[in-house]
Amino acid sequence: MEIYPKLGATYAKGERTWTFKLGSMLRMRHLERKEDVQRYQGHQYTWIAFDELSEWKDPYCYTFMFSCARSPKGVPVSIRATGNPGRVGHGWLKLRFIDGRKPMNMYWDPEMRMYSTFIPAKLEDNLLLMKKDPGYEARLKALPPHLYRAFREGDWDVAAGAAFEEFSRERHVIHPIPIEPSWKRFCSFDWGYARPYSIGWWAVTHEGRLVRYREMYGCAKDPVTKRPIYDTGVKKSSVDLAQESWNVSVAEGCRDMVADPSIWSRADEGPSVAENFAAVGWNMIKADNDRVSGLARMHDYMKSITDDGRPLLLVFDTCYAFIRTIPVLAVDEKNPEDVDTDGEDHVYDETRYAVMSHFTLPKHKELVDVRLQPVQQSYDDNYDPLGRS
Questions:
Q1: What is the pLDDT of residues 111-138, one digit of tens each?
Q2: CA 9 to chain centre
Q3: Are 123 and 131 in contact (CB under 8 A)?
């Protein structure tokens, strides 16, 4: 009502339809229940927009309307949607638009045969609201912590009952940077066949900071959309995985691997998983598998920052499996000192092995007592999180 009349459009209130000068029409309609979508079957639209898409618990209505997005006259077709994290549709929207993707980047969607992108929004983007209602932000603070981060920061990494509420992409995730030759490098490994395997490559700075700079994650993908199929492995043999991981490590001098002690066991007369890795050159080290101490130490690394004001654990933004799975891990309802092992916890397990290893403990003990409040700044493209000029 504020904009379209200035463009020469007229509004038919009874039909809830805008008509523009050249004859194009914008129809305001509803789609509340699944059965409502049937009334649009056979329609054709060159532009479709959804408000509050996250209020739908599954993508049925959204994907059904793709059949109506067509253009017999050759007019470009586009689809737009808005939504808030923390609502009932949080999971499927995060998987479809956010996991493994960078905001503002365009990605080809083979299912829709269109490009798609995620545009994040924060309170600062709504300048009018901040000016007219300055108390709104204070009222948001009355919400539970995960909902405050969802509504205030537009944070899609939040989840009710999350084990790592302290995790934040702005604080812990960085653009790739050069790894200094003098930094210690090692790997952590959680084996999986029918379930995903996870290997993380870590660098330990002179100050004791842990930097995850590479990963290999054996999660199956949908053959059409190429999106991860949650908690389903690729069934790769340990012999092949050992050789592949060694090939990307040997040139950089990384040969130590901290792994789940269970992979030293033999199921039959053949070699164990650990022996297959050792055979190609890996120096295999049994991890400390104390789950309670491991969880506590991971909290220390994520919450603690060093005297330079930066987190003790940083992750390259190319480590998609870490960024996707760690924020949504839930606390075990029966044991609050552990995570829910029914979740996709493979990256968590090998990260736990890393922080409990002897490669990190000496420096960590020196730094854990100099904690400050978590850093609230964002990292831009030119920001070096390790403080080098």
A1: 767 899 999 888 888 889 889 998 998 8
A2: 42
A3: no
Residue the block writes with tokens 């309609």: 29
Short-list 158, 88, 151, CA closest to 123? 151
User: Start-end ranges of CATH 3.30.420.280 in the chain?
Assistant: 169-370
Output the furthest CA–CA distance in the chain (Å, rounded): 81
Which structure tokens are listed for 296? 């506590």
Pick from 192, 191, 157, 334: nearest CA to 260: 191
- For residue 360, give every residue at least 6 positions away whose Cβ sits within 8 Å of its Cβ, in sequence order, or none: 204, 208, 210, 354
Q: Is the CA virtual torsion 15, 18, 21, 23 positive or negative?
A: negative
- What architecture is the 169-370 domain classified under in CATH? 2-Layer Sandwich (3.30)
Lookup: tokens for 354: 């890393």
Phi then psi dihedrals of residue 135, to 5 deg: -85, -5
**Going edge to edge, which strands form the sheet with 184-190?**
173-174, 313-316, 210-217, 198-204, 184-190, 256-259, 283-286
With 0.85 as the threshold, say if the pTM is over it: no
